[in-house]
Specification:
A hairpin with a 4-residue loop joins strand 7 and strand 8. The radius of gyration is 30 Å and the shape is globular. Helix content is about 30%, strand content about 20%. It is an alpha+beta fold. The N and C termini lie far apart (about 60 Å).
């Protein structure tokens, strides 16, 4: 019984630590909560293959899985500390302090870490120490007294209101544990509400945004760009279905009214600081652009096409006096920084070579969703997101690749990463059972900023068959394709490959995503009835 109650006491102390930290984080910032900072530290130190495993197996739920894992480990740790406190009353609180120190160090050690970020972990740990020490005291066994001796030396019975000898203060433990749990729950709810109020202000700022008509609107999507085949990805990916891959455990909620972007660094004679309204008053362009994540396995889902609206990045840099290296400029790397501390390095020559690189403020006719970078993000056609697509942007610094390694480069990824030509079979799905006869085999292919020239499909290693290509919207978007397969009964393997406008055909050599994107032919196995 005492062991079970001790474990419960440890859990309550853990709850106290988290809830008090939640309340303190409301006075610091939501990203300073201990689960968030420890989870962020785990992400920062996760080897690339492990990260790929998480993205591949958990997709957009990878951060939820990480947070649940941290909470589960915390619960086990708290129960173990509670049980240890039965024998060594001071050991448990000391262990809690160590855990709080780990959280504090993780907080200040994040890329965007501040000294104040340590406060939630420290204060939460201190309060939890006191609670654990108090609860452990209620579970201590009372020694057997000798009784009270009168002046004549006779032993007289003692009137007892305390626990009997050899027992513990069960009633006192229940009262203290209940009070601690209730108080911590109240603190946690208050902290959550206070944090939510800041998010509500950011949400209100987003709702108030009215995107201006672009000076350069996107051309109409050709009628034949979407083949309307069942099971085939639509040409335009909706905001809610667009993939999300980033390191933010808490999605930043930035108030557009207070947001500022700074442009500075090497070879910037006229540094700029612009507000969100400044951007909206500038010339805006609107373009359909396909984005791809470098973590996308062959045939994977981390690719999507959207209509973006934003300010041409090259024009903004030119206004600051930036010249690309090809024209004598001293900086060859543009480092973009997010409000959550992410750093992304992009070749200056690439963003200023005439492509539609932009600081995007809108996505599919709406202000950017928070998940996708509101109020401002970068979009650069032809480059994987980890070297181009900084979300929640707040700083642009001109530097060199020799002088600075961005976040992912420090973690074994290539510093320059043009998107590789790829294709995917969307239908039929793996292990589908279509009927014999004409079966539509369809999917998408992409070679951003080069364009797709042709797509070919083969069955069971046979000859390649040229697929019908949908109408091309632009070289920066994916293309749908369709091949009508005269399917016969039995098990069959379908493979697809694409060729871009530079004449490069996908290689059949399978390699993983590290360091600069996967290669290989996508294949599916089906059983035709």
């Amino acid at each position: 019984m005492r062991g079970a109650l001790a474990a419960l006491g440890g859990l309550i102390a853990g709850l106290v630590a988290l809830c008090v930290a939640e309340l303190v984080s409301a006075g610091v910032r939501p990203e300073a909560g201990p689960v968030t900072v420890v989870g962020g530290a785990v992400i920062d130190r996760t080897p690339a293959p492990v990260k790929d495993f998480a993205v591949r197996n958990f997709g957009n739920d990878d951060k939820l899985v990480l947070q649940l894992g941290i909470l589960a480990l915390l619960a086990l740790f708290a129960m173990a500390v509670g049980v240890a406190s039965l024998r060594y009353r001071k050991v448990g609180p000391a262990a809690v302090l160590v855990f709080g120190a780990i959280g504090a160090l993780a907080a200040v050690g994040r890329p965007d870490g501040r000294l104040s970020d340590a406060l939630p972990s420290v204060v939460g740990a201190l309060v939890a120490c006191a609670v654990l020490y108090l609860l452990a005291g209620r579970l201590a066994l009372r020694p057997s007294p000798d009784g009270d001796r009168g002046t004549d030396g006779a032993v007289t019975p003692t009137t007892r209101t305390a626990p009997a000898p050899g027992a513990f203060d069960r009633r006192g433990f229940v009262i203290a544990a209940t009070a601690a749990a209730a108080a911590s729950a109240g603190a946690g709810l208050l902290g959550r509400r206070l944090n939510a109020s800041g998010a509500a202000e950011a949400a209100a700022s987003r709702e108030s945004v009215a995107l201006p008509a672009p000076s350069s609107p996107a051309p109409p999507i050709p009628a034949g760009a979407d083949l309307k085949v069942r099971g085939l990805s639509s040409f335009t990916t909706s905001n809610k279905d667009f993939y999300r891959v980033d390191t933010a455990l808490v999605v930043p909620r930035v108030d557009a009214g207070t947001w500022r972007l700074r442009i500075h660094g090497k070879g910037v004679p006229r540094p700029l600081t612009v507000s969100f309204q400044d951007l909206l008053r500038r010339k805006l362009i609107e373009r359909d652009i396909t984005l791809t994540c470098v973590s996308n396995e062959v045939g994977g889902p981390y690719v999507g096409n959207a209509r973006w609206i934003g300010v041409p990045l090259a024009e903004l840099l030119a206004e600051a006096g930036v010249r690309p290296p090809s024209k004598g400029g001293p900086a060859d790397q543009l480092v973009s920084r997010s409000v959550d501390g992410m750093t992304i390095g992009t070749p200056v020559d690439t963003v200023m070579d005439g492509r539609d690189a932009m600081l995007a403020v809108g996505m599919n006719g709406q202000p950017l969703p928070f998940d996708h970078g509101f109020p401002v993000r970068m979009v650069v056609p032809g480059l994987y997101g980890y070297v181009s697509a900084c979300k929640w942007l707040e700083d642009l610094e001109l530097t060199t690749f020799d002088d600075y390694d961005a976040y992912w480069v420090k973690r074994s990824w290539s510093r320059e990463a043009p998107i590789k030509t790829q294709s995917r079979i969307d239908t039929p799905r793996p292990f589908a059972s279509p009927k014999a006869g004409t079966v539509p085999v369809a999917g998408v292919a992409w070679a951003q900023h080069r364009g797709v020239e042709r797509v070919e499909v083969r069955v069971d290693g046979g000859r390649w068959n040229r697929a019908e290509l949908a109408a091309e919207n632009s070289e920066d978007t994916w293309r749908q394709w369709l091949w009508r397969w005269p399917a016969t009964s039995g098990s069959h393997t379908l493979e697809v490959r694409a060729t871009d406008r530079d004449g490069n055909t996908q290689t059949d050599k399978r390699v993983g995503t590290v360091p600069d994107g996967a290669t290989g032919w996508h294949s599916v196995v089906v059983a035709v009835d």
